[in-house]
Design a protein that fits this description.
alpha+beta
Length: 416
């Protein structure tokens, strides 16, 4: 029927097409003029060079004052004078706060007067005790001569013991009043607050102020904070992979977004002995000299720590790396023949856009743009050049192309 005729016709056409393709393939193999041209790939090249490469860790963090304390009163009282303000420099043991002290001065005078009364009482008790001791000595002497009776001797003995007891009581009262005076004097000294610290620099700065003059202060109420700005503490978080490579004393190059173009040198002074489970990071502290006080606590910083360096390494641009057959390498260019060869590499350190080549020895120029279209042996064309003929003799009716670099027509390669 018609359907069967249509099927036969399709089979005949398919067989004729297959036969024609086989004939074309054989003709192409025997005569390059029939071969299709291989399209040259436009690429850009980069240079293999020798130089320095470093293994760097890059981290972010923030600055903290290396030392900070709060100025606060030990006693209650009204703030009379606040002698410093935000940003003021403070020297060691400088008076910075004066609290109204009339009440405390009065307490000192009262304690001093009470001490004087106690001392007078002690003097009287000492005198009475001395008299009683003399009376006892005389009674003992007369009793031996049978002039004093035993009863009179007992009276003298009792007076001596009573006088001794009163003297001890008076001495205790004097000691108590001396302690009360010392306490009153100490409380009076608390009305003057000094910024005191041990170690570090002799000059610090007021960071914050919390109250104004005239405020009624409670004991331990914060008045101001004092910061040490030189050196500063840089706190960064280091990932688990880099933590084992850190060592105390390692140098760090620090930059702050607030101070573009300026770098500061620091060093690792503390490593946290644990890695936080939630973030898988460890706290690392850097000491950063800050003689000019340019850096401030709270600034965001970036820290760069060098783990390793190779001085004369073979380097290629990272953009040149390509992967073929699960092997990473580069396409090494032959600028004369305008072809490339794929060279598998063993890589080392990576810094920015540069990669170290460990093996094999490599030199020349490599493809950095266009390698995704290349295979081993592919033809290339460079910027400003015309591609070479890839199949030898031009086909029928075709004009020969100029040679590389725009040479004269007719510079044809012989047939392969």
């Amino acid at each position: 029927g018609p359907m069967r005729k249509a099927i036969y016709l399709l089979l005949i056409l398919a067989g004729a097409g297959l036969l024609g393709w086989q004939v074309f393939q054989r003709a192409s193999a025997s005569n390059p003029a029939f071969a299709p041209r291989r399209q040259a790939v436009a690429v850009e090249l980069g240079q293999v060079r020798t130089g320095l490469i470093r293994d760097l860790g890059h981290y972010t963090g923030s600055l903290q004052a290396s030392s900070q304390f709060v100025i606060a009163p030990r006693i209650t009282g009204r703030l009379k004078h606040l002698l410093v303000n935000i940003g003021d420099k403070v020297e060691r043991d400088q008076v910075v706060v004066q609290i109204v002290d009339e009440e405390y001065r009065l307490q000192v005078e009262q304690a001093r007067a009470a001490l004087e009364v106690a001392k007078a009482s002690l003097a009287e008790a000492v005198s009475n005790f001395s008299f009683a001791r003399k009376e006892l000595d005389r009674a003992n002497a007369l009793s031996g001569k049978k002039i004093y009776s035993q009863a009179e001797l007992d009276v003298a003995q009792s007076r001596f013991q009573a006088g001794e007891a009163k003297k001890k009581v008076a001495q205790a009262v004097v000691a108590e009043k001396e302690a009360a005076l010392s306490e009153a004097q100490v409380r009076l000294s608390y009305t003057q607050i000094r910024a005191s610290w041990r170690g570090g620099s002799d000059v610090r700065v007021v960071g914050e102020r919390f109250v104004d003059e005239g405020t009624m202060l409670a004991a331990n109420a914060p008045i101001a904070t004092v910061l040490e700005l030189n050196p500063l503490l840089g706190v960064i978080n280091v990932i688990e992979r880099d933590y084992p490579r850190l060592r105390l004393g390692q140098e760090a190059l620090v930059t702050a977004d607030a101070l573009p173009g300026q770098t500061f040198k620091g060093r690792v002074i503390r490593l946290a002995p644990l890695i936080t489970e939630t973030s898988r990071q460890a706290r690392v502290e850097l000491e950063i000299p800050n003689q000019d006080w340019l850096l401030k606590p709270g600034m965001f910083i970036r820290a760069e720590i060098e783990f390793d360096r190779h001085q004369t390494a073979t380097l290629v641009p990272q953009a040149a790396l390509a992967k073929r057959a699960n092997r990473q390498g580069v396409f090494l260019a032959d600028p004369e023949d305008l072809k490339v060869s794929f060279v598998p590499l063993k890589l080392g350190l990576v810094e920015g856009e540069t990669v170290e080549v460990l093996e094999p020895a490599l030199s020349g120029r490599v493809v950095v743009v266009g390698h995704h279209l290349l295979e081993d042996g592919s033809a290339i064309v460079l910027p400003g050049q015309r591609p070479k003929e890839q199949t030898g003799q031009p086909g029928p009716g075709q004009n020969p192309r100029p040679g590389p670099g725009g040479g004269p027509p007719g510079a044809k390669r012989p047939a392969q």
